Amino acid sequence: MTTRHRYGVPRAERRTPLGHAMAAMGALARSDVLDRVGIRRGVERAVFTGTRSGFRTATAVSRGFARRGGADRAGTRARPVDPTRLFDLTPTEDQQQLLAVVTELAAELVRPAAAAADDACAAPAEVLAACDELGLSLLGVPEALGGIAEERSAVTGTLVAEALAHGDMGLAVAALAPGAVATALSLWGTDRQQQTYLAAFTGADVPVAALALTETGALFDALQPGTTAVRTDDGFRLDGVKSMVPRGCDAELFVVGASLDGRPALFLVESSQEGLGVRADPSMGLRAAGLSSLRLDGVAVGPDALLGDDGGAAYVECLRLSRLAWCALAVGTGQAVLDHVTPYVKERQAFGEPIAHRQAVAFMVADMAIEIEAMRLLTWRAASRASTGAGFAREVALARQLCADKGMRIGLDGVQLLGGHGFVKDHPVERWYRDLRAVALVEGGVLV
Amino acid sequence: MISLEIPRKHRDLVAQAHQVALTLLRPLSRRYDRAEHAYPVELDMLAAMVDGLAASGASEGAGAHGVRRDTDRDTDRSTVRNGPHMASVLSVVEMCWGDTALLLSMPRQGLGNSAIASVADAEQRERLAGSWAAMAITEPGIGSDSANLATTAVRDGDEYVLNGEKIYVTAGERADSVVVWATLDRSRGRAAIKSFVVPKGTPGMTVDRLEHKLGIRASDTAAISFSDCRIPAANLLGSPDIDDTQGFAGAMATFDNTRPLVAAMAVGCARASLDLTRELLADAGVVVDHDRPGRLQSAAAATFLRLEADWEGARLLMMEAAWLADNDRPNSLQASMAKAKAGRVGSDVTLGCVELAGSAGYGEDELLEKWARDSKILDIFEGTQQIQQLIVARRVLGLSSSELK
Q1: How confident is the model at residue A33 (pLDDT cuts 50, 70, 90)?
Q2: In which element (H, E) is residue A236 found?
Q3: Quick check: helix, strand or coil at residue A402?
Q4: For residues B348 and B356, is the Cβ–Cβ distance under 8 A?
Q5: Do B313 and A377 touch (CB under 8 A)?
Q6: What is the distance in angstroms between the Cα of B118 and the nearest Cα belonging to chain A?
Q7: Is B317 in contact with B338 (CB distance < 8 Å)?
Q8: How far apart are CA B147 and CA B97, in angstroms?
Q9: I need a labelling partner for B337 at 20 to 30 A (CA). Which of A17, A77, A290, B190 fits?
Q10: Prediction pTM value
Q11: Is A312 in contact with A335 (CB distance < 8 Å)?
Q12: What is the pLDDT of residues B132-179, one digit of tens each?
């Protein structure tokens, strides 16, 4: 794929003669002729540093997952949670214990590392190691497969994602990305797929893995991926480009969304496979997640690369559970914004008193608190229904709508409440603003 | 264990209330919207039925009396329960899906009944059982700042003498009695404000007029004046002492219990609009696809999705506030959150649905325009949007009313 730098200019734009003169002036300003003849007069040299590298043909080296298990046997599944008769907002004791640990990790390790990770466009090894050690990648993997899920874990995954995102959304995405693939294998994998891949996730050296569902292009419809899978004599051939793939440059294993016979389906792709290219794709936010683009150029995969059915059911469920995870991340990040602006507006003085004493400020904070709670309740409801095996298409759609709309509003208001201080990187709100923009448009990457 | 579904034990109640709304309230909606101030006589039989259901236990404690905090509950507090607060909000949602104004006109289900249930002692509750009580707080000169009210109550022997003027008394003409907020001593501020039960027909109490309104026209809204109106001292609800440390808290506690009910009204009224508009859009060929974001669908579908998401947020906040109350946990913050969200969502949804439905929404053949008028009051009474924001902001920011005015 060639990338032409358009500088955001629509194709219909035309340069007038004045525009051409300006372009020439711009070129001159960049040239060292000015310096040689001594007429630069302090004009800064405009340097465009392309941070976008080209596609690397070589992806991360895959450990070589040895094929194991029977081909046609159904995989092992976590059983659905027995529904309660009550309306209840109390997490189980197990969930509370796990949350206590994750909350501490988010505050002590994730938050302090967030700004540097955002700068570096990569998550620090010690944060990822701590999350792996905690078993975050195994939340959705049944005990029988070496994981920690006694039953369907959508609620637990949701609570963990929320707590981790309170530390930092980008780092949370990086930490939870391998778990998305492990959970997908647990939910839809055949016995052979589970035996082949899940063992690596339950070991000490958790493989980097990514769920790749997003593609570029305005109005991309995740239900109709442009990436295609064609049946061949030995399996499938995949072609297309996926975007917003977390830690794509380091990943050993991908779950890729592609259209097969006109219906969306999931495919397991190892990084060592021929025809796979990856490049860093730094974006507005979520930079710590190491977002990447993945190019599939005639990638040949075997017949058991298809994860789940070919009728679209597994794919659609995957899409919903992924959106649910993003809702949880939005709730945690929104709460982080609220928790940061609250002490700020109480301390910041204007006209002789804290700005929090003004309704114009206080009401913005009130609305944040109200909408975060609404976002949380919608997200929890969808998660709870997913866990018990009830339908949750509508619930997750409403949660995502609210989390996308109000989450962004909270990010926007967070920066506004800090004024100029919100705009500079001394405070984390500008990062949360950038991160929260993703919730409305990203697909895949995380999964509960 | 986290679950946000309607409790199993309340599903029959919800289904029952829905049938009442569908078969008894809806057919009366337009008639009593037009015939403002005419008493909906059909409600007497309905109220008898509601009382019967309550007596049989089938209503799970729902209703205006259901908001009492059961402080002497002897059950194990470590177990979660769903009780009368939940039953009340859920049944109010269904009834207001039928008609908000008619719910507000339901005999013996007035906000005054909720106040009595919240703050009256056992003797008063027994004495006032079976009576229909309206609530009188607002005055011509005070609205949201109810601490500054001017109506006075002066002790004289075994009686209190009330003087002042009250407006916006819902069911003020029809109810058997009015719960009146008055001050024992204007110089003592909030702590001196008490509520008094004034039976209808008490000399000195006059219904001056009934308001003509934008919406909830089936519900009478009275202006009532009190001129040397004498009531028995035993009609003061709660303690007669002016306790500066307790202050306004007692009176305001009623709001923690009634605000979720008003949120429920907005949730129910808005759902009526959503349900009908969903069908009208489908007739026009637009069906919301929940697996696709709004931007990939028609503008009408995208709008509907946004309204539906906001509505669901209001509904769940309402349930959270009721759940906390049923489990004896403080809920002032959540009650105000629910009221604030539901109040504004009620307007957004009902007005949005009129726009989506076009002239079918605007005309009187359908009820969409009525719901868009009825919903407005729900963002005003029991504390306006701005008052709820003030309460939420003070709690979240940890500021007093003198710091955040």
Answers
A1: low
A2: strand A235-245
A3: helix
A4: no
A5: yes
A6: 23
A7: yes
A8: 34
A9: B190
A10: 0.94
A11: no
A12: 999 999 999 998 887 789 999 999 999 999 999 999 999 999 999 999
